[in-house]
Amino acid sequence: MTVSRRVFVKAGGLALVSLGLDPLFLGRAAYALRRPFAASRRPILLCLFQRGAVDGLNLIVPHGEGAYYQERPRIAIPANDVVDLDGHFGLHPSLAPLKELWDNKSLAAIHAVGSPDSTRSHFDAQDYMETGTPGVKSTADGWANRYCQHDREHADTPFRAVGFGPQLPRILAGSAPSLAIDDLQAFGLRVPQEAARDRLTRAFEELYDGAGTGLLASSSREGFEAVQMLKRANPTQYVPAGGAEYPPGRLGKTLLQIAQLIKADVGVEIAFADCSGWDTHVNQGSSDGQLSTRLRELGLALAAFNKDLGERMSNIVVLTMSEFGRTIRENGNSGTDHGHATAMLALGGPVNGGQVLGRWPGLSVEQRFEGRDVAVTTDFRDLFGEILARHLGATDLGAVFPGYVPSPTRFVGAIRG
Amino acid sequence: MLSIVATLCVLTAQAPGVAPALTPRDSAFHALNRLAYGARPGEADSVAKVGVMRWIEQQLDADHIPDSRLAAREREFKILDYDRADLAGRYRDAVQERQRLQREAAATGDSSRMRGARPMQEFRELGGELQQLAIVRAAISERQLREVMVDFWTNHFNVFVGKGADRFLLPSYIEETIRPRALGRFEDLLIATARSPAMLFYLDNAQSVAPGSSPPGPLSALRRGGTGVRRGINENYARELMELHTLGVDGGYTQQDVINVARMFTGWSIEQPDRGAGFVFHDWAHDQGDKVVLGQKFKSDGEDEGIRLLKFLANQHATMHHVSAKLCARLVADEPPDGCVDAAVAAWQKTHGDIRAVLRAIVTSPDFWTPQVVRAKVKTPFEFVVSAVRAAGVEPDDTPRLAQMVARLGEPLYQQPAPTGYAETEAHWVNSGALLARMNAAMAIAKECSSIPTIDDHAQLVDQIDQRLMAGTMSPHTKTVILEQLTDIADPQQAKTLAVGLALGGPDFQKQ
User: Fold this and answer.
1) Whole-model pTM over 0.80
2) Closest to B440 (Cβ–Cβ): which among A189, A219, A282?
3) In this predicted complex, what is the ipTM?
């Protein structure tokens, strides 16, 4: 019944067969759907978007740099508060729960990463980071979706690409199947009683069985499969492993649900979530304060996720990203304004951890971008491209980032060779 | 008129070997699905009685259709009482209030003070109200074709409500720029969008200035809408104007054309909010050189130069083809047959882009009526929700729930960040999560269904649903499944709700 999978419908399934492609391929894909995904343990990427432009300089603090303290008399992290990493850089003290992961080499930071486009508009910069085409506004789909489009052999589960939130994020938008999940426990038909819900689900399933072929038929089958798979995974009974405690709030809840979904072995390959509150123009704070509160939640959530997934982190990469960084100099309101490069974190077994990666441009005036901001030395597409290629096994990065060829010579080495 | 008669002949005398022609009722239902937001109960019959082509002519002449019920409902929307200057003032006050609160929080070191006060809340609510207004209009207006075209053009000339000043510029964009011109001339629509503050802000033209130019007066005049200091020409609008609004991505323009078009629009900007945030042309910011676009020379001529360019672009063959094909994708089929596109282009050429003539050409093309396209398109999220509301006789109220439904189905109104707008092809909105959301929406709408009476006999009930909600197009499979589901349900109210929900959420009703 699963022969006319969406991907084949999209590519013109019948046409594929008539072009001489092995029809057994279709059968194998159908078989793969019933195969427990646990057996394959495919690599997984979780992207966490810090919307609002996180201050990379107070996230991964260049405490060995005199200019850092000169430019930020009120908001710099005092050297003795910084969780030192390598004598030059250190973690914001609120990220202390992540130090352990640095020490066991599963956490790396990438500094001075960003977009070649100079926009300081949140809207435009987020858009570019999600479409993967800086400077081109009319790109219709997101880079994560394009990766799925160009690597279709694995597209045998409705949970392959999942965005957590009420709507599908731009990064996952496009023609490859992807799912928006606002709340795992409410996924499917909204009927309070389980028996009634099952009955209604079956009724709709029968109705759509008569829908024949085409996208409507294949998508509805995927939807019902997703409901069944989740039902078996029984998300209401979830207890995080290893005594992991997620922090209260939306981010913790979202990461807990992503962990659930991964452990349910429904075939997640790319998960996406976002968290906001990083636009610290006013009263940013130093070791304590506004940014510190947000970073504490982030650190606790990531540490809990890592603990919860335990040995499964061996093939998971978590990547944080943000549309741009913030000004080197603090402003008149003890905050920072929109800047250019920022810092990102990569976490997980495959990560080449225990290092601050990327070329550090320095903070002196002549080293800055437009005299005020951290210069970009790593194009974000090279970082994303490296993770897609070396972690997920993407073969055609040119198709994922049109107009740009992420080159291994520019990879920062975020993934172990 | 002759062409209509000719088409009617085609409709009634199909060539042998072709699938049988549509019945008058099927034709009416088809037209209501494509040129309106679906049929209300009994409407397919009433349109068939008037004659479907006559009904279409009436719809094309929208101004002469009385629409008092909608007018009464529109009065409930306070958003229509504000003009752009009001909203601009309120927006500026809200921004200042937010800044004041932030400064206070900074001074006292207490960021929790920001939490209770939400100065921008009003603008979030206005955005929601704008969505609800769109749903009310689509659901109950008698001028259905105009509402369909308002949606089409709003999407074609997309502006994202979430980008800064567009939070307060969008209402006037919809009311003053798009709606009055939805059935007018393409050229006028194009010029109006180009001059609209909403578009000027959204695609950054407001900050595009000739390199090296500087305004008279103090430095503060350099700042607009929080977008910062202007640094030279900004190509965004110029590029999207050609790629999306007019010529199409394969329209034959070059990067040099993009730059030259951007130069022509330097100085097209927005007044300060306290002056009403209307269109303004800054001569000081305008690039005074001559420009060449698509091989055509444009002499430097201030603001008029841009107007001449827009007229030139509006009537390029590539534009006619690009926009006609997109219209046919909306009205005929995702991959429209060449015939209807060619007919639309020919009408465009003949009438210099009279939108009504283009529409007439499409609906009188045999491609519009061919059985292969009938009930072969999947409704968009907006079309699905509105058509279900119309069929079930649900009164769209002033709560955000219907707008939220559209959002859950994947295409929240006015919230597409990309200037492409939402795509016209089903692959972009048909997916497993969105289909489950459609089923949930159908069940919610079914609970309020007023267009079907409670009937004890299940066969009669299903027949009523088929006739009144779907003009007799329910498939035998759907009927069988619904009847099976009803067998153990004794309560007629419960049976009705379940049957209507299954019908609206099932595969037949997803199509148009």
Assistant:
1) yes
2) A189
3) 0.89
